[in-house]
Amino acid sequence: MIRLGLLLGSGALAALGIGLVVHQGAGVNHVALDSLPRGVTVVEAQAAEYRAIRRYVGTIQPWIEAHVGPQLISAYVDSVRVRPGDLVEKGQVIATLDCRNAAASSEAVAMQARALEVERQALAHESARVAELKQGGFASANEIEKRQAETTSKGAQLLETQARMRRATLEVNDCILRAPFTGEIADREADPGAFVRPGSAVATLVDRTTVRVVADVPEDDFAVLGKETDVLVHALATNRTLTAKVARISPSADRATRTLHLEIDVHDEARSLPTGTTAELVVDIGSARTATEIPLAAADIRGNKATVFVVEAAFAHKRVFELIGERAGTIYLSPALVAGSRVVTEGRGSLEDGDRVAAAVEPSAPPLARAGLTAAFSVATPGAAR
């Protein structure tokens, strides 16, 4: 029985070893990996039109802006009659100042002018009577000239006092701050009790019936941004897009930044565009060109050349095409890349020219309008300079 048990155990161990050897041999891959197709993801190239654009970031500014405050007098604010957002007419009172001192000074100067006028008239009458006495030999020429000089001096003093009275009147009038034009209150900068001086602002008034979109553009774009050039303006605050024309551009660049100042006039009777907000500007350059569109991830770009892998009959071929343009993660190549060709997007880093591939087709993105300004904001990334 012992011998029989040893024999059976030895046989079982031998069978187990043979099974393990067979199992290990069955898992060995006898096919070279280089001969297997490489798994890649491809996308079909699409026919498109490409037109170069320039993108700038600008600011919406009011056509007219005024910081309303005193010009001649320093005083405490007595009342402020407006709040931000109020619509005011030209000449409407915006604020009043406490000008009791100025009013008293103006009254004192007026009284002084009246006294000088009375004194001048008395001297004039006296001078006339002395001139009559000369005919009878009762007055000398020297005395007559002295009386006339005194009359003239009083007249000059009167004129000086009248000038001071007019200045005092201006100071009194400066105590009532009125709107210089019809517009809206943008900011209230002082409340009753505040002390203001000449140059201080009590309120800021803007006119938004026409706004100016201003931007600074690179000097090398001067040739393509002449007057009447169509510009697409997108107001970020209201998400409103409109088309306008370049109204004016500076003939001289800023010495520090080498940029040119650009302005666009936008008429807005409804006052729907807030000032001080950001606007994106897009300008078409040149004419539309026929191109082939592929994702940016499908190419290696150097200068104006793009290298792609085109899958033909289960083999990947390396091709180089002219780069026409790039926008929002999409590149536009010359029509030498035929529309409908399958280009590799994922897995191309390990490919060599002529490698066999197993391609999984990625759904193509829906076509976008690219020929002009109408789709500039839908195909361009926000904040891009160009």
General description of the model:
- The structure is a single chain.
- The protein has 386 residues and is α+β, with helices and mostly antiparallel strands.
- The protein folds into four domains: 105 residues, conserved putative lor/sdh protein from methanococcus maripaludis s2 fold (Beta Barrel); 88 residues, Efflux pump adaptor protein, beta barrel domain (Elongation Factor Tu (Ef-tu), domain 3, Beta Barrel); 55 residues, OB fold (Dihydrolipoamide Acetyltransferase, E2P) (Beta Barrel), CATH 2.40.50; 74 residues.
- Helix content is 25%, strand content 39%.
- It contains four helices and 19 strands.
- A hairpin with a 2-residue loop joins β14 and β15.
- α2 packs antiparallel against α3.
- 22% of the residues are buried.
Give the topology string: H per helix, E per strand.
Answer: HEEEEEHHEEEEEEEEEEEEEEH
Number of helical segments? 4
Overall mean pLDDT = 82
Judged by helices, strands and strand pairing, the structural class is alpha+beta
Q: Within the CATH hierarchy, at the fold level, what is the topology of the largest domain?
A: conserved putative lor/sdh protein from methanococcus maripaludis s2 fold
How many separate structural domains?
A: 4
What gross morphology would you assign? elongated
In angstroms, what is the radius of gyration? 44 Å
Strand content: 35-45%
Specify the biggest β-sheet.
6 strands, antiparallel, barrel
- Cα distance, first to last residue? 94 Å
How many beta-strand segments? 19
Low-confidence stretches: 369-386
The proportion of residues forming helix, as a percent range, comes to 25-40%
Query: If classified by CATH, what would the architecture of the largest domain be?
Result: Beta Barrel
